[in-house]
Write a structure and sequence with these properties.
The chain is mainly beta. The chain has 4 domains: 85 residues, Immunoglobulins (Immunoglobulin-like, Sandwich), CATH 2.60.40.10; 235 residues, Metallo-dependent phosphatases (Purple Acid Phosphatase, chain A, domain 2, 4-Layer Sandwich); 89 residues, Immunoglobulins (Immunoglobulin-like, Sandwich); 107 residues, Sandwich (Lipoxygenase-1). The protein is 9% helix and 40% strand. It has 5 helices and 41 strands. It is globular, with a radius of gyration of 26 Å. The termini are far apart.
Length: 572
């Protein structure tokens, strides 16, 4: 049975190379139709024409007999096939040839519809196998067929901070859990897949260092494949020493790969890091500018939002792990995944909760926003086109909700979040759906600042604590606009400071301001985090940020001269 295939690209009936690289050896081989599925080229099994093959620098192509010839400059090269439409690869799509050699690839016929749905997951940061395994098993139970799943990086917890000999165990956990996917799984490397690059004095000659272990387990760091008439590109956004960029070799490969694609061929791009934030985003934009890119999908930031590059949308997707499996993502979006629907040549997508048979989540406004007055909220429900009843309440009062849009797989609902009568503090928007005899609920906790002071009074003093990351000048701490203390300029990095807060200065909602001191022509560039308030044995964080929050202020931007944080005391 065909599962968990990780594809990589090759080029068809021609050969394109990077002119700056001198060929050192020749790899030859054949791409054939493995009609009996035995992973061997038997007599009478035909070759497959115009299939792309690459070593990451050059791209070659198969002729009418399925033969290819690839000049490679890498003595430790990997060679891989870009799996064409309506096919799957038998076994691995890549081979470690070590310079000159032969690599044959068998394909089997797998008809594909031009209309299909796939999932993007990202930042799995696996620690426990059971969590990812349970999700994978749930994907197999969805009432619609899922063509494939793409994991856009940070598969593991972080092999970048462990020595090479300890790194394989993390990938073993990931591979063990990922085996539960019934669909083909395409992996994209993230920064945390690069072994020991954050380990001081690491042995950079170790064969597993950096990209070594990933290449050993998963093959190429970047590749392509076709599905249902679309050309997919998986990119590696990590250069070592660590920079978020593609690099000259990868860009040259990308340009070569695309020479074999018509200008009107639809493209979809995957990369762990945000494409517009790459150091060589301008070079990438030049390559993609005249192409029909339906969209790009990224992870890395543990946030959900959309930007653009070269006129196409770049969808940033929240982590399946949220805050490393300890809670929601930093922007308040739940641990989740992205549904991507291709229909009639158009792409539609929605992010949603990983929990529930009919996932539901509040997509707007973001949990990191401060609510004043009235604003519109938006809910996404993955209902698979089935009839549903939806209700909502805010701060305990019922809120009307209406259908705003309906796609084939999900629906969008809207209502008005009116905070004008709410006291300042944390207030909950709760949404409940009734579908197919099942109830699904989702809550979003918002920070309300209207100037309506809650009469609540504290029963005990508190302590404001913060970990200092960087400071060059004495920065002021304010509570409710009044001085609370000063962070000394000579505070060592990673020091945790404490500021005592008398009970009489505490309210239900407590605004803490960190104000950067004047320094030179601008403000002190100050970094602190996490910041929390200890009250009656409880550790209270600004509800808009996760417990690993970090805040940087200062510099020459006047808008970054101070940072406001809000701490809501418990009512019980």
């Amino acid at each position: 049975m065909y599962r968990r295939v990780i594809f990589v690209t090759a080029l068809a009936w021609l050969s394109v190379c990077c002119p700056a690289v001198a060929p050192a050896a020749v790899v030859e081989g054949r791409v054939y139709l493995d009609t009996n599925g035995n992973r061997q080229a038997d007599a009478g099994e035909p070759g497959v024409e115009r299939v792309l093959v690459s070593d990451g620098r050059r791209v070659a192509a198969t002729d009418a007999a399925g033969q290819y010839r690839l000049e490679t400059a890498d003595s430790a090269s990997l060679v891989w096939v870009s799996v064409p439409r309506d096919h799957a690869v038998c076994g691995s799509f890549w081979r470690a040839v070590g310079g000159a050699g032969r690599a044959d690839f068998g394909l089997v016929s797998r008809p594909q519809s031009a209309d299909f749905t796939f999932l993007q997951i990202t930042d799995t940061h696996i620690g426990r196998e059971d969590l990812l395994k349970r999700f994978a098993e749930g994907v197999g139970k969805l009432p619609i067929p899922i063509a494939f799943v793409v994991n856009t990086g940070d598969l593991v917890g972080g092999v970048d901070v462990v020595p090479p000999e300890k790194a394989p165990a993390q990938f073993d956990r990931y591979l063990g859990a990922a085996a539960a996917f019934q669909q083909p799984l395409f992996n994209v490397p993230g920064n945390h897949e690069h072994v020991a690059f954050n380990v001081p004095d690491a042995d950079k000659t170790h064969p597993l260092y950096g990209k070594g272990l990933y290449r050993k387990l998963f093959g190429p760091m970047y590749y392509s494949w076709d599905w249902g008439g679309i050309h997919f590109l998986a990119l590696d956004g990590t250069s070592l020493p660590y920079q978020e960029k593609l690099g000259a070799d990868q860009l040259a490969w990308l340009a070569a790969d695309l020479q074999f694609q018509p200008l009107d061929k639809p493209l979809i791009v995957f990369c762990h890091q945000s494409l517009p934030a790459l150091r060589d985003a301008a070079e990438l934009e030049k390559i993609l500018r005249d192409r029909q890119v339906l969209g790009a999908f990224c992870g890395h930031l543990h946030r959900t939002f959309t930007t653009q590059l070269a006129g196409f949308p770049v969808y940033h997707t929240g982590a399946l792990s949220g805050a490393w499996w300890s809670g929601p993502n930093p922007d308040g979006t739940p641990q989740g995944f992205r549904l991507v629907q291709i229909q009639d040549g158009a792409l539609k997508t929605a992010y949603t909760n990983r929990e529930g048979a009919y996932p539901l989540y509040v997509s707007a406004p973001p949990a990191s926003s401060v609510q004043t007055g009235a604003t519109e909220f938006e809910v996404v429900l993955v209902d698979f086109g089935r009839p549903v009843e939806m209700s909502a309440s805010f701060a305990g009062s019922r809120v009307p909700v209406r259908t705003a849009a309906r796609e084939r797989l999900w629906s969008t609902w809207k209502g008005t979040l009116d905070t004008r009568q709410a006291f300042d503090g944390d207030r909950v928007l709760k949404v409940v759906s009734q579908l197919g005899g099942q109830t699904t609920a989702c809550e979003m906790r918002y920070l309300v600042v209207n100037g309506r002071v809650d009469p609540y009074r504290a029963d005990a003093p508190a302590t404001l604590k913060m970990q200092v990351r960087a400071i060059d000048a004495p920065d002021v701490i304010l509570l409710g606009g009044e001085p609370l203390g000063v962070i000394p300029a000579d505070t060592p990095k990673e020091t945790t400071l404490e500021f005592k807060v008398p009970a009489k200065r505490l309210g239900k909602l407590n605004q803490v301001t960190i104000r950067a001191a004047e320094q030179g022509t601008g403000k002190d560039q100050f970094s602190v985090g996490p910041v929390w308030l200890e009250y009656l044995g409880k550790r209270i964080h600004d509800l808009r940020y996760p417990t690993f929050d970090r805040h940087t202020i200062g510099g020459n931007d006047p808008a970054r001269g101070e940072k406001d944080l809000y701490f809501c005391l418990p009512t019980e």
